[in-house]
Design goal:
- The protein is 39% helix and 16% strand.
- The protein has 366 residues and is an alpha/beta fold.
- Helix 6 links the parallel strand 7 and strand 8.
- The model has no long low-confidence stretch (mean pLDDT 94).
Length: 366
């Protein structure tokens, strides 16, 4: 019913406004145990699906399944428990910046096709203080929360390490893990920080901040799908040299040919495309497989890009991802998505005689 009735109706609304209303509706559902229980009616089969065979451990953090909400869906940290109730194992909040930032001019988020989006939000955020306040309600919940770290547009590249460290310090107690987001296409010059030297400086600044606060939490680097294999290898080296948790692959794509599939007018439009596009999905999965082959599985990989069901989740997992993240897929597929993915993975495991999901990681990486 969602894809046949609800999604087409939402397609007539402003995409960013719809998203804000959906997030706030989930936030309201967290008000009482009763409303949270009512929310489960919108999950797959009307309850939160769990199965011990889906248990995943990323750098010592336990997740009860491999399906996470990626950064960008809940930038404010206001719907973590609701998303968990629907069946997600974790929510990566942000990207979070030190100070409030309006982002790029509106309109800045568009649905190009069913489950396919283009956004140029530009790190719109109320800043780390508001996010920290919002996350207070989840302390003691047991839900693993990731924090995506970013920098304000006005911050010079030379000051990026200090900017990332500042957010790390403020949200240290809220985070199960951190992710450095230097791969968004919507902040000028940001992707240049993926290069080995500036990325190393940011990583080391974040690690020092964590050391000062009691110890290092798992730290990931999120990369863009346009990186060459050589550039990806440079990121891998930074991860290995600094003993990081791993890599999140990938952010949205600025590939003009992929954008133009939805109309020539989109070819040169600013912003990154994400969601249910086969070419984008292949691009991101190829990055996952490359990282897995180069590291022989020695670092953890979180796969992102075009995941919409169990089959596309399994593509990322079999390419080498220990877990997967969904962002645009929630808009395209609805609230039953995490349950359907997890149930479908279990069905596949039973079909091929696999006892744990870990046995599938990297099976097709080559």
């Amino acid at each position: 019913m969602y894809k046949e009735i609800v999604s087409p109706l939402l397609g007539k609304l402003d995409s960013e406004n719809w998203h804000a209303r959906a997030r706030e509706a989930l936030h309201l559902a967290e008000a009482t145990p009763f409303t949270l229980k009512m929310l489960e009616q919108f999950a797959d089969c009307h309850y939160r699906f769990t199965d011990e065979r889906l248990h995943v451990v990323l750098c010592g953090i336990e997740f009860d399944n491999p399906v996470m909400v990626g950064a960008g869906w809940d930038k404010l940290g206001r719907a973590v428990k609701a998303l968990y109730t629907l069946g997600f194992a974790s929510v990566e909040v942000g990207s979070v910046l030190a100070y409030p930032q309006a982002g790029n001019p509106k309109p800045r988020q568009f649905m190009l096709g069913p489950g396919v989006a283009l956004n140029r939000l530009g790190f719109n955020t109320p800043g780390m203080e508001v996010v920290a306040h919002n996350l207070e309600r989840y302390k003691g919940s047991g839900i693993p929360i990731g924090i995506s770290l970013g920098k304000n547009k006005a911050v010079d590249a030379k000051d990026a390490p200090a900017a990332h460290a500042l957010v790390t310090r403020r949200l240290y107690t809220d985070a199960a893990y951190f992710a450095i987001n230097v791969s968004s296409p919507n902040t000028p010059g940001l992707r240049e920080l993926q290069e080995k030297a500036p990325l190393t400086e940011i990583v080391q600044a974040v690690n020092v901040a964590m050391d000062e606060l009691g110890g290092r939490k798992p730290l990931f680097v999120k990369i863009d799908p346009e990186l060459t294999d050589e550039a990806v290898d440079g990121v891998i080296q930074v991860v290995l040299d600094n003993h990081l948790a791993g890599i999140i692959a990938t952010n949205s794509t600025i590939n003009q040919n992929i954008k133009a599939k939805y109309g020539e007018k989109w070819r040169n439009e600013a912003g990154g495309l994400s969601g249910d596009d086969a070419d984008f999905r292949r691009l991101t999965t190829a990055k996952v497989a490359h990282i897995y082959r180069e590291t022989r599985g020695s670092i953890d990989i979180i796969g992102v890009g075009g995941v919409k069901d169990a089959q596309t989740a399994l593509e990322k997992i079999k390419a080498g991802a220990k877990a997967i993240q969904v962002v645009t897929g929630i808009r395209g597929e609805g609230t039953t998505l995490p349950g359907r993915i997890n149930r479908g993975i279990v069905d596949y495991m039973e079909k091929v005689g696999v006892k744990t999901i870990g046995e599938l990681v990297g099976a097709d990486a080559g």
